[in-house]
Amino acid sequence: MTMNCARVIFLMLAACACANAQCPASSLAVIVNKSNSAESLSTTQLRRLLIGDVRAWPDHKTAALVAREPSSKVFQCALSMIVRLSDAEYHRYLLSAEFRGEEPMVMQTVDSDAAAARIVAGSAGGIAVVDANSVSAVSSSVKVIRVNGKNPGEAGYPL
What we know:
Elements: H1 2-21, E1 28-32, E2 40-41, H2 43-50, E3 64-68, H3 73-83, H4 87-95, E4 107-110, H5 113-121, E5 126-131, H6 135-138, E6 143-147
Parallel strand pairs: 2-6, 3-4, 3-5
Antiparallel strand pairs: 1-5, 1-6
């Protein structure tokens, strides 16, 4: 039985290593509307926004989540690195809000980082996670915020 447990642990670690290899460090960036007063979020705050536990910014603007399509690498990496839930678990958690007595979280799904930036730019409470490589193309219309006090590309940036 010890051999089976060791084999299961090895396979789990191998699966984790493969999942992390698909999401290289500094691969994601968080964008918000330029009027948003937030300059930085902790990974915990970001996770709470993405799962709908927090629905408003400190200035009381409603958080408006814009997400890439579930099949995109950006969405999958956000689930893995920030939310730490599988796709099925994430959607089940969002749907369960109604059973917790909460209003269901409204999320707009888009097919590109440019589309996400357009919607975030037009929504005072807009927030999206995008590919860090697309930041230069979209940064004129939105604000890139720091995560754990770091900008994308800086040493120690968690995404």
